[in-house]
Amino acid sequence: MNRIQQTFERCRREGKAAYVAYLTMGAPTLAKSLAAAETLIGEGADILELGVPFSDPVADGAVIRRAADAALKNGVTLADVLAEIPALRRRHPDTPLVIFTYYNVIFSYGLKRFADEAAACGVDAVLVVDLPLEERRELLDVLRPAGLTLVPLVAPTTGPERIRASAKGLEDSFLYAVTVKGTTGQRDAMPSELVARLGAIKALVDIPVVAGFGIRTPEEGAAVAAQCDGFVIGSALVERFMRQ
Q1: Which bin fits 191, alpha (ψ -120 to 50), beta or left (φ > 0)?
Q2: Which of 19, 199, 232, 238 could form an SS bridge with 212, CB 3.0 to 4.6 Å?
């Protein structure tokens, strides 16, 4: 089993939902985002999503957009983020690390170069927000030989057959179930149909299901994840650490 599978297995044994924490690397500075990663692991984050800034983050709300803009103004690139991961990996050998970004960032860097360097750094998986199911093969073809996996996403409007197809072949990963329509960011309340929706998704696939978008606290995340395997907190954490 890889680190992702081991983490979900541990969380199941402990009777809890996996806490997936997202950070925009380089915001407010690269050093502070790395310190934030250490803080979150210390606070109980089970998996870290390391966001690589992109100039047109269409899936993200105002908080992460501002953070990405700050990181880009600081000159932070994918190469800079990868360069910091080996030290993080040495300090936390069991914590899954997921690169979270947009496809153009990876494509411009070079697919094979990215896969080889990410694997050598200690990355476990890649989540590409704007990569559709039909176009993911060329990325998987370089990730798999390097020992990396891909985190698929499904939207509130995704139908059953596409959900199954999204999870197929990624048994060593987890399925990111977007909880709300629109972009990332905190919401006053989760959709009333969310629990039933998550339960239905989980019944369709054989990999862990994680709920993301709009979750503000670990307590809220654990409640949302009652029908799945984990939850993601992103914008609330980015906002918290941008103030520091």
Answers
A1: beta
A2: 232
